[in-house]
Amino acid sequence: MTETTQPPTTTILQTLNQTSQTNLLRTTLTDRIIGSLLASALGDAIGLYTEFFTSVKARSHYPTAKFTLHPTPTPFYPDKHRCVHEYGEWTDDTDHSLLIFLSFLHSGIPPTQEDLAKRLKVWVSNGLLALNSPPLGLGRLVGDVVRTRDYEENPEGVARRVWEKMGKDAAPNGAVMRTHPLGLMMVFQGEEETFEVAKRIACVTHVDARCVISCVIVTGLVRSCVRGEVLREKDVDELIGRAKTWFGSEEIKDWEDLDRHLNPADGLDGLKLDENGIGYTYKALGCGVVCLKMAIRRLEQAKGGVLVEKEKIFEELITDLTMRAGDADTNACVAGGILGAFLGYAALPGHWKYGLKHGDWLMKKAGDFCVALGVMDGTYTPGEDPDTAIYGGKAPLTKDEDEMRWAVLSGATQTRITKLQAERDAEAVVEKPKMREMISGMLKMKF
């Protein structure tokens, strides 16, 4: 009879400790990766409420400065820009980030310029076919670039030609709004390699150096937040310093302009989000950096416990950005991607995340992404899910099908506007007597 030897107690404890640490690390990474993907989409959906408003108009139409998506959504202001969407629906910002994200799930590697160009070409004509959502919110620069004849064969070259024709001065936020998934898929790769991927993918549509460095910084911050490398404001500044050094100084004509947006003297007030040039790439970048630093500061000063504070931070910062209006959905989308990577999915408010349209679909894809990265158990085979294909596993829309979809959407939009306007009129009828009664009471008190 062979006598079995039991391993020493210390060895068992060491093994358990290593397993526990590994499980904790994987759980943390999963929470932050999913957090970034969902938080960015939520920022997009909440920011839509005030997109293109001034802050004054935002306060007028949403006086409580509170937004909810679940169970009873906050009503939209009744106009076509908002009512073309359903409550909790993200916009083109998230759609474009999903083109990058789905490309990775389809191939197992970050997208090539040509693959993203093909996906953008399909999106411009068909929308996101996996969800049968039309292309809403197409920016001028992206539209001009993607519709150019030889775009799919030479995306960066076409992007540069279009930019040059526009006077070499166009620096909108259409690249920075989509870049955060790159930081997630590069989480186990080197920082400079991450910077390079961000630069390459930005240039698929936006070659202006200001657009490119915005993408480099945001992508780097998302990666570092997920990795747990951002703990202090100093960590943020040091990463930005490394990104600037890596990028070099030749293409950036005005470094002071970048620094003013990264470190505005008056915080978010200094970014003047609802004033001229609301779609400027540095404004969206500044929102992400300033909000991250504010979150770090608040956690350092947390008195009610870090978990309690985390649950407040995301909602309050995204609401603040939304009430500042301007290009609010993009600003909140960029900030959301960074904050979600820093705070994690658990910090996202339930009355937002449970009301996100297509939220279950996105959660499933985020889980697949985590499996593909190896931070969740399971097996993922790139390309197996038809949703990840360029046409989302569906045939391109025919002209008749496209016209029918727009006709249905137009009818639904008008119905929403009419319903919301009627509700606002009814509320006004009730509020007028209350206002007269309040004024009368104040006059009696005074005289």
UniProtKB/TrEMBL annotation:
Binding site residues for Mg(2+): T91, D92, D93, D327, D329, T330
Q: Which GO terms describe its molecular function?
A: metal ion binding
Q: Please name one Pfam family that this protein belongs to.
A: ADP_ribosyl_GH
Q: Which cofactor does it need?
A: Mg(2+)
Co-factor note (free text): Binds 2 magnesium ions per subunit.
Keywords, A to Z, come to:
Magnesium, Metal-binding
Record-linked InterPro entries:
ADP-ribosylglycohydrolase (IPR050792), Ribosyl_crysJ1 (IPR005502), Ribosyl_crysJ1_sf (IPR036705)
The record's section on PANTHER family has: ADP-RIBOSYLGLYCOHYDROLASE
Q: What is this protein called?
A: ADP-ribosylglycohydrolase-domain-containing protein
